[in-house]
Amino acid sequence: MSLWGGRFSEPSDDDLRRLNDSIDFDQALYAEDIKGSIVYSRALAQAGVITAAEADEIIAGLQQVMQEFDGGSFELAEGDEDIHTAVERRLIEIVGEVGGKLHTGRSRNDQVATDFRLWTMRAADRLQEELRLLQAALVSVAESHIETVMPGYTHLQPAQPITAAHWLMSFFWMLERDLERLRAAKKRMAACPLGSGALAGTPFAIDRAQIARDLGFCEPSENSLDAVSDRDFVADMLYVISICAVHLSRLAEDILIYSNAAFGFITLDDRYSTGSSLMPQKRNADPMELTRGKTGRLIGNLTGFLATLKGLPSGYNKDLQEDKEALFDSVATMHQLLPVVTATVSSLLINAEAMEAALTEDLLATDLADYLVGKGAPFRQSHHIVGQVVRLAAEREVPLSQLPMSALSVISEHFGEDVAQVFDYASSVARRNSYGGTAPGAVRGQIAQAKARMTE
Ligand code: ARG
Which residues are catalytic? Predict the structure, then answer.
């Protein structure tokens, strides 16, 4: 028997029920649902809709239902369409008819919106903790490689020398913005829909502000129609997860490239590497590929759900039930990925010698142009001059530093013997001491800032 059977003369078709029911997945909301009902029954008593004794009976019953779920002994029954009907059905079995008073003035529409906001707020907290652990891993590896110099790339072509710490820390700041987005999204979702009824509000004098506080929200929602029918908080969360996953995916891609034998900059720990069933020598980074791959699925959850929302008329529509599987999947996927990415980073072996061996003097071409600027040449001109020097070195098949002064002087009068000082990778990074730059000094400052953020 369903809870809304009164109006119908025939039971629902089985196929319809399989399509309609959400109990298979929305059981995950049981704790939020029961907590919401406990707070709601107190509010009903306070408003004089039920007596204090009735509220106590209902609350005791709800606590038993909670225990059954917690202990895994809750049994689903025919007609348990979703978590809300299942909890109410069981409550009435336990406490009898008085349980039927709980739903006074309430609808599953304000109930599910409340439950799911609570669940999502909690999910945001858990993600926050996991992101902090990844940040801490990045900082800790970075700290050991403040002086390690590696090629920095643009367009995946060698560009300028950078420090390995600088590379690692770049991901710290991406994640820091993800955390800010998470906090902002959580703040927006902290408005409590309970008391909105099906769409129009409730005639019972419940204290919505009190309900909001008791459930851990910041405030009651301002508009009952909006509160039951929008799921922008779900889309917010799916977006925050997607952009965060895009960051993880880019980190994964760097790790894949840098661990490739042609680079050899890093070696993955055995525990986070995989082999091949055919080629005995293989050492693959499947977890990083899955991080990159699953990002596509997370973006899919976002775009799919936005498409679900876009054409909905005002008020609750059953389309909204699609919110749960999308977000459950995205959150679960992040819980799978984050610990593995964190462990991969913590256990990364940085091969400083391989990084150093990959440094080539063309990475210092900008430094050479800056040298000429120091001698008074306008940058545009020095850029052109160095271009000619690079071409000559390529023609002669020698590194830049091996061109004789006689050859350099033909190209520009600005070259002097002190040009030799340019050809030093450590000095190149040390010169980039601007705020946020790659110089060890600047990176130390960056790491100090990062640590301060982590303890905030
Ligand atoms: N299972 C539903 C959902 O997840 C609960 C709300 C149902 N409301 C309704 N009027 N049918 O959205």
Answer: 155, 276
